[in-house]
User: Fold EF-hand domain-containing protein from Mesorhabditis spiculigera.
Amino acid sequence: MFLGEKEQEMGDTERDNATFTQVFTRLAGSAEATVDRDGLFDALCCAGKTPTQWDELCPRRDSAVFNLEDALLFYQHCPQPDPPLIEVAHIPIPTAIVTQKVHTAFGISDQRQEELLDLLYAYDRDGLFDLAKVYDFIKFCDDMAATKDDVLKKLLSKKVESPAGNKSTPPSTQLVSSVVRRGFVIISRDIRFTAFRFLLAQPQKLVVTLGIIRNNDMDDKIFLDDIFCVVSDANTETPVAISLHKDQQKNYTTGELELPAGEYSIVVMCGGVTLERVKPSGEGGEQLIGENKKLTKRFKMTLMNMFEMFDWDMDGLLNRKEFDAFTAASGDDPMSDEDWQVLSEHFSIRDGCVPMSTFLQMHQIEADSCEDGTGDFADMWTSLHLVGYDDHFQLRKACPIRLEITSQTPVTLDEDFRICSKWEERGYVTEYFYRHGVDQNAPLPTKLFMGEYFGVLVTNTEGAQASDVYALKIKGTDGVEMRLAVDPQCFKPTEYHGQFVSLAFFSSSAPNWDVELAMIKMP
Assistant:
Protein backbone atom coordinates (compact mmCIF):
# COMPACT_ATOMS: atom_id res chain seq x y z
CA MET A 1 0.00 0.00 0.00
CA PHE A 2 1.38 3.42 -0.94
CA LEU A 3 1.80 6.02 1.80
CA GLY A 4 -0.95 8.26 0.39
CA GLU A 5 -3.39 5.37 0.29
CA LYS A 6 -2.55 4.43 3.88
CA GLU A 7 -3.08 8.00 5.04
CA GLN A 8 -6.40 8.09 3.17
CA GLU A 9 -7.50 4.85 4.86
CA MET A 10 -6.52 6.22 8.28
CA GLY A 11 -8.46 9.40 7.54
CA ASP A 12 -11.54 7.41 6.58
CA THR A 13 -11.30 5.36 9.78
CA GLU A 14 -11.06 8.50 11.91
CA ARG A 15 -14.09 9.98 10.18
CA ASP A 16 -16.05 6.74 10.66
CA ASN A 17 -15.16 6.64 14.35
CA ALA A 18 -16.20 10.28 14.69
CA THR A 19 -19.52 9.48 13.04
CA PHE A 20 -20.16 6.58 15.41
CA THR A 21 -19.17 8.72 18.39
CA GLN A 22 -21.74 11.30 17.31
CA VAL A 23 -24.44 8.65 16.99
CA PHE A 24 -23.57 7.01 20.31
CA THR A 25 -23.59 10.36 22.10
CA ARG A 26 -27.02 11.26 20.76
CA LEU A 27 -28.45 7.88 21.71
CA ALA A 28 -26.85 7.57 25.14
CA GLY A 29 -27.14 11.24 26.09
CA SER A 30 -23.41 11.84 26.53
CA ALA A 31 -20.07 10.34 25.54
CA GLU A 32 -19.56 9.17 29.14
CA ALA A 33 -22.88 7.30 29.36
CA THR A 34 -23.45 3.59 28.75
CA VAL A 35 -26.01 1.66 26.72
CA ASP A 36 -27.42 -1.83 27.01
CA ARG A 37 -27.22 -4.52 24.34
CA ASP A 38 -30.25 -3.21 22.43
CA GLY A 39 -28.92 0.34 22.61
CA LEU A 40 -25.61 -0.83 21.16
CA PHE A 41 -27.45 -2.56 18.30
CA ASP A 42 -29.39 0.65 17.59
CA ALA A 43 -26.19 2.71 17.55
CA LEU A 44 -24.46 0.34 15.12
CA CYS A 45 -27.43 0.34 12.74
CA CYS A 46 -27.88 4.10 12.88
CA ALA A 47 -24.19 4.61 12.17
CA GLY A 48 -24.52 2.59 8.99
CA LYS A 49 -23.16 -0.83 9.98
CA THR A 50 -24.81 -4.23 9.57
CA PRO A 51 -24.61 -6.23 12.83
CA THR A 52 -24.73 -9.69 11.23
CA GLN A 53 -24.59 -12.80 13.47
CA TRP A 54 -25.46 -10.50 16.34
CA ASP A 55 -25.98 -13.22 18.96
CA GLU A 56 -22.48 -14.59 18.29
CA LEU A 57 -20.90 -11.15 18.13
CA CYS A 58 -22.60 -9.96 21.31
CA PRO A 59 -23.97 -12.83 23.45
CA ARG A 60 -27.04 -12.04 25.54
CA ARG A 61 -26.23 -10.94 29.09
CA ASP A 62 -29.03 -9.16 30.90
CA SER A 63 -26.68 -6.98 32.94
CA ALA A 64 -24.31 -6.09 30.10
CA VAL A 65 -23.65 -2.39 29.51
CA PHE A 66 -21.28 -0.77 27.03
CA ASN A 67 -19.40 2.50 27.17
CA LEU A 68 -18.18 4.40 24.12
CA GLU A 69 -14.82 2.58 24.02
CA ASP A 70 -16.53 -0.83 24.10
CA ALA A 71 -19.03 0.25 21.47
CA LEU A 72 -16.28 1.49 19.14
CA LEU A 73 -14.70 -1.98 19.16
CA PHE A 74 -17.99 -3.52 18.02
CA TYR A 75 -18.37 -0.80 15.39
CA GLN A 76 -14.93 -1.51 13.94
CA HIS A 77 -15.70 -5.23 13.61
CA CYS A 78 -19.08 -4.86 11.89
CA PRO A 79 -19.23 -4.93 8.07
CA GLN A 80 -20.02 -1.73 6.19
CA PRO A 81 -23.13 -2.00 3.97
CA ASP A 82 -23.29 -0.46 0.53
CA PRO A 83 -25.03 1.95 0.57
CA PRO A 84 -24.75 3.12 4.18
CA LEU A 85 -28.07 3.36 5.98
CA ILE A 86 -27.59 6.97 6.98
CA GLU A 87 -26.80 10.39 5.69
CA VAL A 88 -24.29 11.49 8.32
CA ALA A 89 -25.32 15.15 8.44
CA HIS A 90 -28.82 14.39 9.72
CA ILE A 91 -28.47 10.80 10.95
CA PRO A 92 -31.82 9.53 9.67
CA ILE A 93 -32.58 5.83 9.31
CA PRO A 94 -35.14 4.15 7.04
CA THR A 95 -38.63 3.95 8.53
CA ALA A 96 -38.78 0.31 7.46
CA ILE A 97 -36.12 -0.52 10.07
CA VAL A 98 -38.22 1.05 12.81
CA THR A 99 -41.31 -0.76 11.56
CA GLN A 100 -39.50 -4.09 11.67
CA LYS A 101 -38.06 -3.38 15.12
CA VAL A 102 -41.45 -2.62 16.64
CA HIS A 103 -43.06 -5.51 14.77
CA THR A 104 -40.46 -7.94 16.10
CA ALA A 105 -40.47 -6.58 19.64
CA PHE A 106 -44.23 -6.66 20.09
CA GLY A 107 -45.36 -9.39 17.71
CA ILE A 108 -47.94 -7.18 16.03
CA SER A 109 -50.33 -9.18 13.87
CA ASP A 110 -50.17 -8.81 10.10
CA GLN A 111 -53.76 -7.56 10.14
CA ARG A 112 -52.64 -4.48 12.05
CA GLN A 113 -49.36 -3.97 10.25
CA GLU A 114 -50.86 -1.37 7.90
CA GLU A 115 -52.16 0.63 10.87
CA LEU A 116 -48.66 0.62 12.32
CA LEU A 117 -47.22 1.81 9.01
CA ASP A 118 -49.74 4.64 8.93
CA LEU A 119 -48.64 5.65 12.41
CA LEU A 120 -44.94 5.54 11.57
CA TYR A 121 -45.32 7.52 8.38
CA ALA A 122 -47.28 10.20 10.23
CA TYR A 123 -44.07 10.92 12.13
CA ASP A 124 -41.49 10.51 9.41
CA ARG A 125 -39.95 12.81 6.83
CA ASP A 126 -39.53 11.39 3.34
CA GLY A 127 -39.42 7.81 4.61
CA LEU A 128 -36.80 8.58 7.25
CA PHE A 129 -37.00 9.02 11.00
CA ASP A 130 -34.85 11.54 12.79
CA LEU A 131 -32.63 9.61 15.19
CA ALA A 132 -33.79 11.44 18.31
CA LYS A 133 -37.43 10.84 17.40
CA VAL A 134 -36.72 7.17 16.74
CA TYR A 135 -35.15 6.68 20.13
CA ASP A 136 -37.99 8.49 21.92
CA PHE A 137 -40.50 6.43 19.95
CA ILE A 138 -38.89 3.09 20.81
CA LYS A 139 -38.46 4.13 24.44
CA PHE A 140 -42.16 4.96 24.50
CA CYS A 141 -42.91 1.44 23.26
CA ASP A 142 -40.62 -0.13 25.87
CA ASP A 143 -42.29 1.80 28.68
CA MET A 144 -45.67 0.27 27.88
CA ALA A 145 -46.36 -2.34 30.56
CA ALA A 146 -49.41 -3.86 28.86
CA THR A 147 -50.41 -6.60 26.44
CA LYS A 148 -49.13 -6.46 22.89
CA ASP A 149 -52.49 -5.46 21.47
CA ASP A 150 -52.93 -2.72 24.05
CA VAL A 151 -49.49 -1.39 23.19
CA LEU A 152 -50.47 -0.95 19.57
CA LYS A 153 -53.77 0.66 20.53
CA LYS A 154 -51.90 3.19 22.65
CA LEU A 155 -49.42 3.78 19.85
CA LEU A 156 -52.24 4.40 17.42
CA SER A 157 -53.86 6.82 19.84
CA LYS A 158 -50.78 9.01 19.42
CA LYS A 159 -51.39 9.36 15.70
CA VAL A 160 -51.50 12.84 14.19
CA GLU A 161 -55.07 14.13 14.08
CA SER A 162 -57.02 13.88 10.84
CA PRO A 163 -57.11 17.03 8.70
CA ALA A 164 -59.79 19.58 9.41
CA GLY A 165 -61.17 19.50 5.86
CA ASN A 166 -63.96 21.99 5.28
CA LYS A 167 -63.59 24.47 8.11
CA SER A 168 -67.32 24.76 8.61
CA THR A 169 -67.76 20.96 8.64
CA PRO A 170 -65.15 19.12 10.75
CA PRO A 171 -64.52 15.48 9.80
CA SER A 172 -66.83 13.00 11.48
CA THR A 173 -65.54 11.08 14.48
CA GLN A 174 -66.68 7.99 12.58
CA LEU A 175 -63.65 8.28 10.25
CA VAL A 176 -61.44 5.73 11.97
CA SER A 177 -59.67 3.88 9.14
CA SER A 178 -56.75 5.24 7.16
CA VAL A 179 -54.70 4.14 4.16
CA VAL A 180 -51.57 5.97 2.94
CA ARG A 181 -49.66 5.71 -0.32
CA ARG A 182 -46.81 7.54 -2.02
CA GLY A 183 -46.81 8.73 -5.59
CA PHE A 184 -45.63 11.52 -7.89
CA VAL A 185 -46.53 13.78 -10.76
CA ILE A 186 -43.93 14.65 -13.43
CA ILE A 187 -44.59 17.67 -15.65
CA SER A 188 -42.75 17.90 -18.98
CA ARG A 189 -43.90 17.66 -22.60
CA ASP A 190 -46.32 15.05 -21.35
CA ILE A 191 -47.62 14.29 -17.87
CA ARG A 192 -46.43 11.16 -16.05
CA PHE A 193 -48.04 10.39 -12.75
CA THR A 194 -49.24 7.87 -10.20
CA ALA A 195 -52.98 7.25 -10.58
CA PHE A 196 -54.98 5.85 -7.67
CA ARG A 197 -58.22 3.86 -7.60
CA PHE A 198 -60.48 2.66 -4.81
CA LEU A 199 -63.79 0.83 -4.57
CA LEU A 200 -66.61 1.59 -2.14
CA ALA A 201 -68.90 -1.40 -1.64
CA GLN A 202 -71.35 0.82 0.20
CA PRO A 203 -71.85 4.57 0.72
CA GLN A 204 -69.57 6.13 3.29
CA LYS A 205 -67.90 9.30 4.48
CA LEU A 206 -64.21 9.90 3.83
CA VAL A 207 -61.52 12.57 3.54
CA VAL A 208 -58.76 12.61 0.90
CA THR A 209 -55.57 14.39 1.95
CA LEU A 210 -52.63 15.27 -0.32
CA GLY A 211 -49.18 16.26 0.91
CA ILE A 212 -45.84 17.11 -0.70
CA ILE A 213 -42.94 14.85 0.28
CA ARG A 214 -39.98 17.21 0.27
CA ASN A 215 -36.45 15.87 0.05
CA ASN A 216 -33.01 17.42 -0.24
CA ASP A 217 -33.32 17.49 -4.05
CA MET A 218 -36.15 20.05 -3.95
CA ASP A 219 -36.42 23.79 -3.45
CA ASP A 220 -38.66 24.74 -0.51
CA LYS A 221 -41.09 26.75 -2.64
CA ILE A 222 -41.49 24.55 -5.68
CA PHE A 223 -45.00 23.04 -5.94
CA LEU A 224 -46.07 24.93 -2.79
CA ASP A 225 -49.84 25.59 -3.03
CA ASP A 226 -49.53 24.52 -6.67
CA ILE A 227 -50.87 20.95 -6.65
CA PHE A 228 -54.34 19.54 -6.08
CA CYS A 229 -56.01 16.16 -6.28
CA VAL A 230 -59.14 15.34 -8.26
CA VAL A 231 -61.50 12.57 -7.13
CA SER A 232 -63.57 11.24 -10.04
CA ASP A 233 -66.02 8.52 -10.91
CA ALA A 234 -63.66 5.92 -12.39
CA ASN A 235 -66.13 4.82 -15.05
CA THR A 236 -67.25 8.20 -16.41
CA GLU A 237 -64.21 10.32 -15.39
CA THR A 238 -66.67 12.84 -13.95
CA PRO A 239 -64.99 14.79 -11.11
CA VAL A 240 -66.83 14.58 -7.79
CA ALA A 241 -64.42 16.46 -5.51
CA ILE A 242 -61.18 18.47 -5.50
CA SER A 243 -58.76 19.26 -2.67
CA LEU A 244 -59.87 22.84 -2.06
CA HIS A 245 -58.66 23.27 1.52
CA LYS A 246 -55.44 23.37 3.57
CA ASP A 247 -55.32 21.69 6.96
CA GLN A 248 -53.25 22.61 10.01
CA GLN A 249 -50.31 20.55 8.73
CA LYS A 250 -50.44 22.54 5.44
CA ASN A 251 -51.61 19.51 3.51
CA TYR A 252 -54.33 19.81 0.87
CA THR A 253 -57.66 18.16 1.62
CA THR A 254 -61.08 17.60 0.09
CA GLY A 255 -62.80 18.02 3.42
CA GLU A 256 -65.33 15.39 4.42
CA LEU A 257 -67.08 13.75 1.46
CA GLU A 258 -70.16 11.54 1.37
CA LEU A 259 -69.70 9.22 -1.60
CA PRO A 260 -72.13 6.59 -2.90
CA ALA A 261 -70.99 3.04 -3.59
CA GLY A 262 -68.85 2.80 -6.71
CA GLU A 263 -65.34 2.86 -8.12
CA TYR A 264 -63.34 6.08 -7.90
CA SER A 265 -60.04 7.40 -9.24
CA ILE A 266 -57.70 10.03 -7.83
CA VAL A 267 -55.14 11.96 -9.87
CA VAL A 268 -52.81 14.73 -8.74
CA MET A 269 -52.44 17.80 -10.96
CA CYS A 270 -50.16 20.84 -10.92
CA GLY A 271 -51.01 24.39 -11.95
CA GLY A 272 -47.38 25.03 -12.91
CA VAL A 273 -47.28 28.41 -11.13
CA THR A 274 -44.11 27.61 -9.17
CA LEU A 275 -42.25 25.80 -11.97
CA GLU A 276 -39.24 27.36 -13.67
CA ARG A 277 -38.35 26.81 -17.30
CA VAL A 278 -35.13 24.83 -17.07
CA LYS A 279 -33.77 23.19 -20.20
CA PRO A 280 -31.34 20.33 -19.46
CA SER A 281 -28.12 20.31 -21.46
CA GLY A 282 -28.52 16.66 -22.39
CA GLU A 283 -25.12 15.73 -20.96
CA GLY A 284 -25.63 16.69 -17.32
CA GLY A 285 -23.51 18.87 -15.09
CA GLU A 286 -22.71 16.99 -11.88
CA GLN A 287 -20.47 13.95 -11.63
CA LEU A 288 -22.20 10.58 -11.58
CA ILE A 289 -19.09 8.65 -10.52
CA GLY A 290 -16.07 9.69 -8.49
CA GLU A 291 -12.36 9.08 -8.93
CA ASN A 292 -12.80 5.67 -7.29
CA LYS A 293 -15.22 4.74 -10.13
CA LYS A 294 -18.07 4.45 -7.62
CA LEU A 295 -21.33 6.41 -7.73
CA THR A 296 -20.81 9.75 -6.04
CA LYS A 297 -22.44 10.32 -2.68
CA ARG A 298 -24.66 13.03 -4.15
CA PHE A 299 -25.82 10.79 -6.99
CA LYS A 300 -26.54 7.99 -4.52
CA MET A 301 -28.74 10.30 -2.47
CA THR A 302 -30.59 11.32 -5.64
CA LEU A 303 -31.15 7.66 -6.54
CA MET A 304 -32.39 6.93 -3.03
CA ASN A 305 -34.87 9.80 -3.26
CA MET A 306 -35.92 8.56 -6.70
CA PHE A 307 -36.43 5.06 -5.29
CA GLU A 308 -38.78 6.53 -2.66
CA MET A 309 -40.89 8.19 -5.39
CA PHE A 310 -41.73 4.78 -6.85
CA ASP A 311 -42.08 2.93 -3.53
CA TRP A 312 -45.83 3.55 -3.51
CA ASP A 313 -46.71 1.12 -0.71
CA MET A 314 -43.80 2.37 1.43
CA ASP A 315 -42.38 -1.07 2.23
CA GLY A 316 -38.78 -0.23 1.30
CA LEU A 317 -38.97 -2.37 -1.86
CA LEU A 318 -40.01 -1.93 -5.49
CA ASN A 319 -42.44 -4.63 -6.53
CA ARG A 320 -42.87 -5.57 -10.18
CA LYS A 321 -45.51 -2.89 -10.84
CA GLU A 322 -43.48 -0.18 -9.09
CA PHE A 323 -40.28 -1.16 -10.89
CA ASP A 324 -42.08 -1.19 -14.26
CA ALA A 325 -43.35 2.31 -13.47
CA PHE A 326 -39.76 3.43 -12.85
CA THR A 327 -38.50 1.96 -16.13
CA ALA A 328 -41.38 3.55 -18.07
CA ALA A 329 -40.97 6.96 -16.41
CA SER A 330 -37.23 6.94 -17.09
CA GLY A 331 -37.69 6.18 -20.79
CA ASP A 332 -37.35 2.39 -20.98
CA ASP A 333 -39.89 -0.28 -21.86
CA PRO A 334 -41.40 -2.31 -19.00
CA MET A 335 -39.56 -5.56 -18.42
CA SER A 336 -40.80 -8.76 -19.98
CA ASP A 337 -41.21 -11.82 -17.78
CA GLU A 338 -37.97 -13.16 -19.24
CA ASP A 339 -36.09 -9.96 -18.44
CA TRP A 340 -37.46 -9.98 -14.90
CA GLN A 341 -36.30 -13.57 -14.48
CA VAL A 342 -32.79 -12.60 -15.62
CA LEU A 343 -32.77 -9.69 -13.17
CA SER A 344 -33.86 -12.04 -10.37
CA GLU A 345 -31.03 -14.44 -11.17
CA HIS A 346 -28.26 -11.82 -11.28
CA PHE A 347 -29.30 -9.43 -8.52
CA SER A 348 -30.38 -9.72 -4.92
CA ILE A 349 -34.20 -9.79 -4.97
CA ARG A 350 -36.23 -9.84 -1.75
CA ASP A 351 -39.70 -11.42 -1.75
CA GLY A 352 -39.89 -10.88 -5.51
CA CYS A 353 -39.07 -7.19 -5.13
CA VAL A 354 -36.08 -4.91 -5.77
CA PRO A 355 -34.52 -3.51 -2.56
CA MET A 356 -32.76 -0.16 -2.53
CA SER A 357 -29.29 -1.76 -2.38
CA THR A 358 -29.99 -3.63 -5.63
CA PHE A 359 -31.45 -0.48 -7.21
CA LEU A 360 -28.16 1.30 -6.49
CA GLN A 361 -26.11 -1.68 -7.66
CA MET A 362 -27.93 -1.67 -11.00
CA HIS A 363 -27.02 1.98 -11.52
CA GLN A 364 -23.41 1.25 -10.52
CA ILE A 365 -23.24 -1.45 -13.20
CA GLU A 366 -24.73 0.94 -15.75
CA ALA A 367 -22.09 3.54 -14.81
CA ASP A 368 -19.37 0.87 -15.15
CA SER A 369 -20.56 0.15 -18.69
CA CYS A 370 -20.29 3.87 -19.50
CA GLU A 371 -16.71 3.85 -18.23
CA ASP A 372 -15.68 0.89 -20.38
CA GLY A 373 -17.34 2.36 -23.49
CA THR A 374 -20.26 -0.04 -23.87
CA GLY A 375 -22.70 2.46 -22.37
CA ASP A 376 -23.27 6.21 -22.49
CA PHE A 377 -23.53 8.64 -19.58
CA ALA A 378 -25.88 10.71 -21.74
CA ASP A 379 -28.43 7.90 -21.47
CA MET A 380 -28.20 7.99 -17.68
CA TRP A 381 -28.75 11.75 -17.75
CA THR A 382 -31.72 11.33 -20.08
CA SER A 383 -33.32 9.01 -17.53
CA LEU A 384 -32.73 11.56 -14.77
CA HIS A 385 -34.21 14.36 -16.87
CA LEU A 386 -37.28 12.28 -17.70
CA VAL A 387 -37.92 11.68 -14.00
CA GLY A 388 -37.84 15.44 -13.42
CA TYR A 389 -34.23 16.25 -12.50
CA ASP A 390 -32.04 19.01 -13.90
CA ASP A 391 -28.28 18.89 -14.55
CA HIS A 392 -27.53 19.51 -10.86
CA PHE A 393 -29.63 16.77 -9.26
CA GLN A 394 -32.41 19.22 -8.43
CA LEU A 395 -35.97 17.95 -8.78
CA ARG A 396 -37.50 20.69 -10.95
CA LYS A 397 -40.29 18.96 -12.85
CA ALA A 398 -41.51 16.24 -10.47
CA CYS A 399 -43.39 16.39 -7.19
CA PRO A 400 -43.28 13.38 -4.82
CA ILE A 401 -46.59 13.18 -2.99
CA ARG A 402 -48.28 11.42 -0.09
CA LEU A 403 -51.96 10.51 -0.45
CA GLU A 404 -54.16 9.48 2.47
CA ILE A 405 -57.78 8.37 2.61
CA THR A 406 -59.41 8.51 6.03
CA SER A 407 -62.73 6.66 6.00
CA GLN A 408 -65.43 4.98 8.06
CA THR A 409 -64.43 1.48 6.97
CA PRO A 410 -61.15 0.22 5.42
CA VAL A 411 -60.52 1.23 1.81
CA THR A 412 -58.10 -0.58 -0.51
CA LEU A 413 -56.10 1.92 -2.56
CA ASP A 414 -54.53 0.65 -5.80
CA GLU A 415 -51.89 2.54 -7.77
CA ASP A 416 -50.86 2.57 -11.41
CA PHE A 417 -48.53 4.56 -13.66
CA ARG A 418 -49.91 6.67 -16.50
CA ILE A 419 -48.60 8.91 -19.26
CA CYS A 420 -50.83 11.37 -21.08
CA SER A 421 -50.75 14.72 -22.84
CA LYS A 422 -51.45 17.90 -20.90
CA TRP A 423 -54.73 18.22 -22.76
CA GLU A 424 -55.78 14.66 -21.89
CA GLU A 425 -54.85 15.23 -18.26
CA ARG A 426 -56.75 18.48 -17.79
CA GLY A 427 -59.49 18.26 -20.42
CA TYR A 428 -62.09 16.49 -18.33
CA VAL A 429 -61.53 18.63 -15.24
CA THR A 430 -61.50 22.03 -17.00
CA GLU A 431 -65.25 21.84 -17.56
CA TYR A 432 -65.69 21.05 -13.86
CA PHE A 433 -63.73 24.20 -13.00
CA TYR A 434 -65.99 26.22 -15.28
CA ARG A 435 -69.25 24.72 -14.00
CA HIS A 436 -68.28 25.42 -10.38
CA GLY A 437 -66.64 28.81 -10.93
CA VAL A 438 -67.73 32.39 -10.28
CA ASP A 439 -68.88 34.47 -13.26
CA GLN A 440 -66.51 37.18 -14.50
CA ASN A 441 -67.38 40.31 -16.46
CA ALA A 442 -65.99 39.47 -19.92
CA PRO A 443 -67.17 39.30 -23.56
CA LEU A 444 -66.58 35.53 -23.54
CA PRO A 445 -68.33 33.53 -20.78
CA THR A 446 -65.53 33.24 -18.20
CA LYS A 447 -65.46 31.92 -14.63
CA LEU A 448 -62.95 31.85 -11.77
CA PHE A 449 -62.72 28.56 -9.88
CA MET A 450 -61.29 29.20 -6.40
CA GLY A 451 -60.05 26.99 -3.60
CA GLU A 452 -58.43 28.19 -0.40
CA TYR A 453 -54.96 28.04 -1.91
CA PHE A 454 -55.27 27.70 -5.71
CA GLY A 455 -57.55 28.73 -8.56
CA VAL A 456 -58.13 28.52 -12.32
CA LEU A 457 -59.61 31.05 -14.73
CA VAL A 458 -61.59 29.25 -17.45
CA THR A 459 -63.44 30.57 -20.50
CA ASN A 460 -66.16 28.98 -22.62
CA THR A 461 -65.22 29.25 -26.32
CA GLU A 462 -68.54 27.96 -27.67
CA GLY A 463 -69.65 30.26 -30.48
CA ALA A 464 -66.23 31.88 -30.94
CA GLN A 465 -65.19 32.57 -34.54
CA ALA A 466 -61.85 31.76 -36.13
CA SER A 467 -61.21 35.48 -36.61
CA ASP A 468 -61.85 36.37 -32.95
CA VAL A 469 -58.86 37.75 -31.04
CA TYR A 470 -58.84 38.99 -27.43
CA ALA A 471 -56.40 40.90 -25.25
CA LEU A 472 -56.29 39.93 -21.58
CA LYS A 473 -55.16 41.71 -18.45
CA ILE A 474 -55.21 39.55 -15.32
CA LYS A 475 -54.09 40.70 -11.88
CA GLY A 476 -54.23 38.92 -8.53
CA THR A 477 -54.49 40.45 -5.07
CA ASP A 478 -51.57 40.43 -2.61
CA GLY A 479 -50.08 36.98 -2.07
CA VAL A 480 -51.29 35.61 -5.41
CA GLU A 481 -48.87 34.14 -7.95
CA MET A 482 -49.99 33.41 -11.49
CA ARG A 483 -49.09 31.38 -14.58
CA LEU A 484 -50.69 32.44 -17.84
CA ALA A 485 -51.82 29.51 -19.97
CA VAL A 486 -52.53 31.59 -23.11
CA ASP A 487 -50.97 34.56 -24.89
CA PRO A 488 -52.55 37.57 -23.13
CA GLN A 489 -51.82 39.90 -26.05
CA CYS A 490 -53.32 37.68 -28.70
CA PHE A 491 -55.74 35.07 -27.36
CA LYS A 492 -57.44 33.21 -30.23
CA PRO A 493 -60.07 30.92 -28.64
CA THR A 494 -60.51 28.59 -31.62
CA GLU A 495 -56.83 27.62 -31.63
CA TYR A 496 -57.20 25.68 -28.37
CA HIS A 497 -58.51 22.17 -27.74
CA GLY A 498 -62.03 21.80 -26.50
CA GLN A 499 -64.86 24.10 -25.55
CA PHE A 500 -63.41 25.10 -22.17
CA VAL A 501 -59.98 26.73 -22.08
CA SER A 502 -57.87 27.56 -19.02
CA LEU A 503 -56.61 31.14 -19.22
CA ALA A 504 -54.49 31.21 -16.06
CA PHE A 505 -53.61 29.23 -12.94
CA PHE A 506 -53.14 30.80 -9.50
CA SER A 507 -51.61 29.90 -6.15
CA SER A 508 -52.18 32.00 -3.06
CA SER A 509 -50.47 32.28 0.31
CA ALA A 510 -53.20 34.68 1.48
CA PRO A 511 -56.38 33.27 3.08
CA ASN A 512 -58.69 35.67 1.23
CA TRP A 513 -57.70 36.33 -2.33
CA ASP A 514 -59.20 37.37 -5.64
CA VAL A 515 -58.40 38.07 -9.28
CA GLU A 516 -59.29 40.95 -11.58
CA LEU A 517 -59.86 40.25 -15.28
CA ALA A 518 -60.08 42.66 -18.20
CA MET A 519 -60.86 40.97 -21.54
CA ILE A 520 -61.08 43.12 -24.66
CA LYS A 521 -62.10 41.92 -28.12
CA MET A 522 -59.64 43.23 -30.69
CA PRO A 523 -60.95 44.82 -33.93
In short: The first strand starts at residue 92 and ends at 94. Residues 3-28 form the longest helix (26 residues). The CA atoms of residues 480 and 508 lie 4 Å apart.
